[in-house]
Amino acid sequence: MQAMTRRSFLKAGAATTATLAITKNLKMDFNVYAQDAKSAELIKIPSLCNGCSTYCGVWAYVKNGRLWKIEGNEVHMKSRGHLCARGHGIAQNVYNPGRITQPMKRVDNKNNFKPISWEEAFQEIGEKMQDIVEEYGGDKMVWACHGGKETYAKQFMDVIGSSTYITHYTTCFTAKTNIWSNMAGGMFYADFDNAKLMLFVGRNYAGGILPAAMKRITAAKEKGSKIIVVDPRFCELATIADEWIPIRPGTDLAFFLGLAHTLITEGLYNKEFVEEYVYGFDEFWMHNKDFDAEKAAAICGIGADKIREIARLLGENAPNAFLEPGYHGLAAHYQNSNEIMMMNVIINALIGNFWKKGGIFPAATSSLGAPEPTYYGPIAPEGVRADGAGVAGQYPLVEPSRGIPQRIPDMIEKGKARIVFFYSYNPLRSAPEPEYQKKIKNADLVVSIPYDWNETSYYTADYILPENHYLERAESPKVVNGHIYWPAAQIAARFKALQASDDSLALLDILKGITTAYGIENLYGYTVEEEMEAALAPLGISVKELQEKGCIELRPTVLPKEEGLSFNTFTKKIEFSIGAWRKEGYLGVPTWVPPLVVPREKNEFRLIHGKQPWHSHIMTTNNPYLMAITAEKNGTFMWMNSSRADELGIREGDLVTITSDIATKQINVHVTEGLHPECVWLPSTYGTFSEKLKLGYDKGINYNDFIPARVDEKTGHVMGQECIVTITKG
Amino acid sequence: MSINCPSPQALCDLLELFIGFFIFPEKELYEEINQGNIDLLIKELSQKAGLPIKSEFQAIPLNYAGWIDSYNRCFLGVEKPFAPPVESVYKVWTQDESFQLPFKNQKGYLMGDSAQHIQHILDYFGLVVPAEYSLMPDHLIILLELLIFLLDNNLEKEAKQLCIDHFDWLPDLQMAIANLATDGEIYIYALEILGKIIKGFVNNPSYTDSRSVQD
Q1: Cα angle A441, B76, A450; round to 5
Q2: How close A173 gets to chain B, by Cα (Å)?
Q3: Most buried by CB count within 10 Å: which residue of A147, A215, A295, B112?
């Protein structure tokens, strides 16, 4: 037999033949090399953390091309020199061998894959896309992503005629952004530094950590600010609060209606502000004048006197007080989430705290430039959205910019989606009903662009194209704002900090490869460096300056003001009654809407969930350091109220069976007085079922296992806490 | 060719053959194994290389689909844990105590000192690792290719140094595969034979240098 054909993985560079002579520059002996490497220079490169959607500013200290240390950027408004545990963990993930290191192609129905080259992957995907688009049209392509950070896919979609760009937000906070946009013209953020009273309802800044926010909240408390936390769970933020008020989950709307009623009937609200800046007050009051504190108390379980006390505190401290605008829990997970968000706007408006010190402010912002277009070829007509978001007769009120990700299998089954891309998004674990989500596999072509072997890639993708680690790439600059009040916008960017092959691929490179193979020439005819220059040009900032400083603060543009307020709504006022809702035949103002489900039996509970301070929902469960914290703290345990546990004979650490209409799982229990008796609480992180995520696999359970993939008709959210489970010991 | 006059080309061909065991299983190689041709080829090449070795790959019960399963589960991580054939994973990440990372003294991570050293050697010779292996310049197949490159270019002293420094972890990989809950016999056996070849090469004075590898 002849020797088999020589494979060649190493490619000879231009200098190869000339350098075969051995010189002293070659340190062939490992020990000599390792000793010499210790004296290498330490350099400091800025980036933006990828541990959650906050994107804190970081400094990566690098030695010999490897990460030496990571720390928070001292200027960046989200970090202010600090990083949370997940920020450290995610940075170190760069060396985790569990990451996907090369493109993969599915080879059978047993979830086996074959590593292939980038060239092969691009060519095969491009050719398959051509065939599908030719037969069914480009509007059958869906791009589903986490959202908020990628800017390239839409160019591709525009050319082939797809409009279905979908983000994960219906599983996170879509009611909030939709409602605030409709009522106040955009989001507003709390000014912790100057508040005399901070009311947090369903918002846990110490769990879903923003390092700078917690620093400012604790500093404000030290200055005398009062903190009230209303939450079914004694959450991490409650540990520093003056008062923790456990509320019956699903009834926050009643609490808010009771607050509003007290503010109005006791004359505590800011009449001048309402008269000048509010539209629809009378309509709101007409529908809610009977919903007093007593009625609210009977529903939410907080005493009427306590509701009135809090309303009076808001009134007394106004306008240097706020009801924090909220996040995940209340903003996408109850049948009445839309009305809860509406009441959040209304209560803040009643105390007249918009643009007031210690109140709430819009985000300071700025405009960045963009490279000149480089594609002048044909563009297909834009097709209809596959998810129906913003489409008359389907989900007209859902923001098309957010989309409806939880029903992608339906779109596939109905032939509306045939090509599905997932970018940094894992609906099999982060959206409801994983067994239903597995039907995504039925699409003609599924391409996943992840960092690790997430469930969506493992169970559904035909091709997996791994994106490099955030410290291995440069990205176009971002305007830093949002989440918290800060008077000035900031500019920051990711710079390539760590040694990796120049061919190591970021999203821009991946899309260049796919579009070129598909037959679109020069759609992204620029490098990321050119994109950075174009972005910064209007601001007069050079790329070099941004790299040296890491984060640059622009001049303050959002400061307190007493008059001349204008809101980005049709009336230029805060609209208590939403016109778009009225147009679709709904009542424009919020009224009491009961939760969809209610626990009634001795062993029935509402299943709620939330973040742990050291994890980012599902994306950090394969990190060794963060999972070590989980092990130390029994972090996978489900919380249960001690009195209810007693009734069921359940003790700390006991294994219980938890059952909903669609799933049955087992988990250990943490028995605590720090939880409302009507619910059980699960951390949102666990339940990894991708066997390839070896550290997270089979650790704990996930709330998404127990809930169906529902769609709220107005804002598209999933109602993820409208779930009754039965608990039995053993 | 006699044992006393070994053929570096035969050694290169022999090492080349073993690369085939650590990439995605190829049907051609599978069929050659089943027909006994690989054992014959190893015997022939190893004799020519001056490192006579007898192998029995044909005796390993193997079907092609099972081999693909095994590759996925051993090297891509279908089951937990898995055993990537990457040197850094089996060695302490760095000897540089100044690093401020908690895992600096631990095993189990990519791009350790060994990867940096291999990258240094590759850079010196102007060799480029494909993008797919950019995070793993010390992947076993890259190490084997580099070894072949050195032998092809009559750099036998450097080749032996490479073997001493960068092939000493093969027993750890063997053990890692053996500890997996999957059938990795083909890989365990391939590593055993490869280890013998490497050891034989380093200890064979006919290949320029006389330093030896310790067991």
Answers
A1: 50
A2: 34
A3: B112
Same CATH fold assignment for domains A188-362 and A604-729: no
Query: Per the CB < 8 Å rule, is B99 touching A63?
Result: yes
What is the pLDDT at residue B79? 61
How far B147 CA lies from chain A's nearest CA (Å)?
Answer: 11
CB count in 10 Å sphere of residue A310: 24
Distance (Å) from the C-alpha of residue A84 to the closest C-alpha of chain B?
15
Q: DSSP string spanning A164-184?
A: EEE-SGGGTTHHHHHHHHHHH
Instruction: Tell me the HSE value of A269 on the side-chain side, using a 13 A CA sphere.
Output: 19
What residue of B is the nearest CA neighbor of A66?
Answer: B111
Say if residue B103's pLDDT is above 50: yes
State the complex-level ipTM. 0.92
Residue pLDDT, tens place only, A268-319 = 999 999 999 999 999 999 999 999 999 999 999 999 999 999 999 999 999 9
Q: Which amino acid is at A365?
A: T
Candidate from A11, A99, A453 with C-beta closest to B130: A11
Residue B80 has a pLDDT of 62
Spatial CA neighbour of A705 closest among A450, A430, A333: A430
Fold assignment, A604-729: Barwin-like endoglucanases (2.40.40)
Per-residue model confidence (pLDDT) at position A504: 58
- Over residues A448-472, the pLDDT tens digits come to 999 888 999 999 999 999 999 999 9
Does domain A104-172+366-467+504-541 sit in CATH 3.40.50.740? yes
| Neighboring chain B residues of A18 at a CB cutoff of 8 Å | 126
Domain A188-362 of CATH type 3.40.50.2000: no
Q: What distances in angstroms separate CA A105 from CA A114, A121, B17, one per listed residue?
A: 5, 8, 24
> Which chain A residues are closer than 8 Å to B133 by Cβ?
9, 101-102
Nearest CA in chain A to B89: A97
Q: Which residue of chain B is at minimal alpha-carbon distance from A88?
A: B101
pLDDT at residue A1, rounded to an integer? 47
Distances (CA, A) of A477 to A76, A362, A473, A495, A516: 13, 21, 12, 9, 25
pLDDT of residue A15: 54
The answer to whether residue B149 scores a pLDDT higher than 90 is yes
Strand partners, A670: A639
Residues 6 or more apart whose CB falls under 8 angstroms from that of A330 comprise A175, A201, A202, A203, A252, A337, A340, A341
Domain ranges in chain A? Answer: 44-97+469-497+542-562, 104-172+366-467+504-541, 188-362, 604-729
CATH code, A44-97+469-497+542-562: 2.20.25.90
* Secondary structure letter of residue A570 according to DSSP: T
At residue A112, the pLDDT reads 94
Q: Quick check: A691 and B79 CB within 8 A?
A: yes
Looking at the predicted structure, is the pLDDT value of residue B76 above 70?
A: yes
Query: For chain A, which ranges sit under pLDDT 50?
Result: 1-4, 18-19, 502-503
Give chain B positions within 8 Å (CB) of A14. 126
CA distance A4 to chain B (A): 7
- Residue of B102, B127, B161 with shortest CB distance to A12: B127
Classify residue A259 by burial, with Cβ atoms within 10 Å: 0-12, 13-18, 19+: buried
> DSSP letter at A538?
G
The pLDDT value recorded for residue B139 is 96
pTM, rounded to two decimals: 0.91
What are the structure tokens assigned to B125, written together? 């010779």
Structure tokens at A554: 């622009």
Q: How far apart are the C-alpha atoms of A208 and A328, rounded to whole Å?
A: 9
Q: Which residue type is seen at A315? A: G
Running DSSP on this structure, what letter comes out for residue A604? E
Beta strands in A388-464 (DSSP E): 419-423, 445-449, 463-464
